[in-house]
Amino acid sequence: MPPMNIAVMLAVILGFAAALPHQWLDAKVPANWNTSATIPTAPGPRSSDLEPGGRCASEVRPPTSPEDRAVVAKGWFLFGPYQRFGATSTLMAASSADGMCRVDGYQGFVFVDGAFAGTLAPHPMDSRTDASMSAFSPSIYNAHELNAAFVRYTQDDPLCCPRSTTNVSYKIETANGRAVLVPISADTSPNSP
Fold this sequence. Notes:
This protein is mostly beta strands and 193 residues long. It has helices at residues 3-18, 66-72, and strands at residues 77-85, 88-94, 96-97, 103-104, 107-112, 115-119, 132-133, 139-142, 145-152, 164-175, 178-190.
């Protein structure tokens, strides 16, 4: 193979490796992706399984707050609890479900005084994959601090049992006159065998 083709292939492989969904969790202080005040649109394709009357409709909760309605308006299905501490609220939403009705294409959303402050991950996640948020996340400690846990799989781990968990701490900061969710640390620890 000519040297030019090897160089191009190597660049593609390295570019792919840099774009792995878990990479942001490997930094002690993750770079902040929350630069927009716009709620992201749900990724496609949207699953009819989560629609009313669908196979997984029981996993979806109805909107009960203005924040819920704002996320639903962007094509998301709500699941899990709506949490609030002072002016800060969190909610979870998905775009689809797998064959066992586990959510896929899901994301955690944070609001402050009803205004979107950011997402808990830089991209939507799929259940039982590396860097997906744990079912027990997020946790709000006070109106300015929260935490989320992300499961970490190796290629040898069974889907039931990820090898470790990365806990990400966040704080609410003010930037350009608006509240912004900022990741401040990521710490990975092994799970019990």
